[in-house]
User: Fold this.
Amino acid sequence: RRAMATADIQELARLLSVAHAPGPQMVQASEQLFSCEQRPGFGAALLQLVQSETVDLGIRQAGSIYMKNYLKRRWGNEQGGVPPNERDLIKESLLPLVLRVPRPVRTQLFACLEEIAAADFPSDWPQLLPELSRLVAVAEGPLQQAAALDAAHAVLGR
Assistant:
């Protein structure tokens, strides 16, 4: 299987748009998205889409919802799950990302954090608490501080 590339982000955006709009191509787009999940780099490409300010907010939100569901389906799977190198990238990217994305996207990313923490913390994610601490410390202004505290609540409030 071919790994996802940066160019595939536009295709992901198109598929997410079609999959969330009623119409004859909705089912086909959903099936194509599900098929893309098998490709290495899918999670990383989805994260790129979600954080991109050039992508429509509705598509970014759809991408964050898809990311949450993707992680629920695949994070705990040894076979056909999220590849180890991608797992590390996702864990490293999620926390800083919650400070930079709009609220509708952020809400879904909190669910992603919760899903990963439930599976990996503390044994496979020992740096989570220090990273949460750092996130709270570097948050600028009340909106980012609230986002950092909400991230901590998503992880620790379970």
About this structure: The chain has a mean pLDDT of 92. The radius of gyration is 15 Å. The helical segments are 8-19, 26-36, 42-51, 57-74, 84-98, 103-120, 128-138, 141-156.
